[in-house]
Specification:
The chain is built from seven helices and seven strands, in the order αααβαβαββαβαββ. By secondary structure, it is an alpha/beta fold. It has a single domain, classed as Rossmann fold, CATH 3.40.50.150. Helix 2 packs antiparallel against helix 4.
């Protein structure tokens, strides 16, 4: 099965324009194995099938890579580390901060950081309302954290001037976009194609007004 998963990952990555090296492939598959193992006890994700995890978690996260700007990124409400962990593996030169209030999930993330030797990852076990980072972030990402309005309202003070909010969504979030139009400029809404996933995906890129 490992070779099947590797083939799925490599083919899918090539489809979205990424060429992973051997170390990155090993790390992504090791992360997947840890996720599958810990998921049995901690219920980190509703996806149980490893092949579905490749498309729904790994490739879904990697598909936004070209839109991630800056050297210091925050993944807010990261859960099991998505999209933060795959992006940290892809971009070892960038600092990726993972924020989640769920202790079980952050314990898993500490284990992933240790096992994979991800020195560019920092894990924060805090509620976003109480989070007081020591630095501001070039980009703030979310995958399944909250509405756009909640994301912007709770994280606006953590963004550098000119920095970007990047929110991963399913269908085009028309109502959510209207809710933030007085707070943010919507720079673009990118349709994202994820290999082997026949569901709509969009990435909303916003800057503060």
């Amino acid at each position: 099965m490992d070779s099947e998963l590797e083939n799925e990952l490599v083919r899918g990555s090539e489809t979205i324009g990424l060429e992973l090296n051997e170390a990155q492939i090993r790390s992504l598959l090791k992360y997947l194995a840890l996720l599958e193992k810990w998921n049995r006890a901690y219920n980190l994700t509703a996806i149980r099938d490893p092949r579905q995890m490749v498309s729904r978690h790994l490739l879904d996260s990697l598909a936004i890579a070209e839109h991630c700007k800056g050297g210091v990124l925050l993944d807010v409400g990261t859960g099991a580390g998505l999209p933060g962990i795959p992006l940290a593996i892809l971009f070892p030169e960038r600092q990726i901060h993972l924020l989640d209030s769920n202790g079980k999930k952050t314990r898993f993330l500490f284990q992933v950081k240790t096992d994979l030797g991800l020195h560019n990852v920092t894990v924060h076990n805090e509620r976003v309302e109480a989070f007081e980072p020591a630095q501001l972030f070039d980009s703030i990402l979310s995958r399944a954290f909250a509405s756009l309005l909640d994301m912007v309202s709770s994280c606006r003070n953590h963004l550098v001037a000119g920095g970007s909010f990047l929110a991963m969504k399913g269908v085009f979030p028309e109502q959510e976009l209207r809710a933030v139009e007085t707070l943010c400029r919507v720079e673009e809404v990118f349709p994202i194609e994820v290999p082997n996933l026949d569901e709509p995906r969009h990435l909303v890129a916003m800057t503060l007004r």
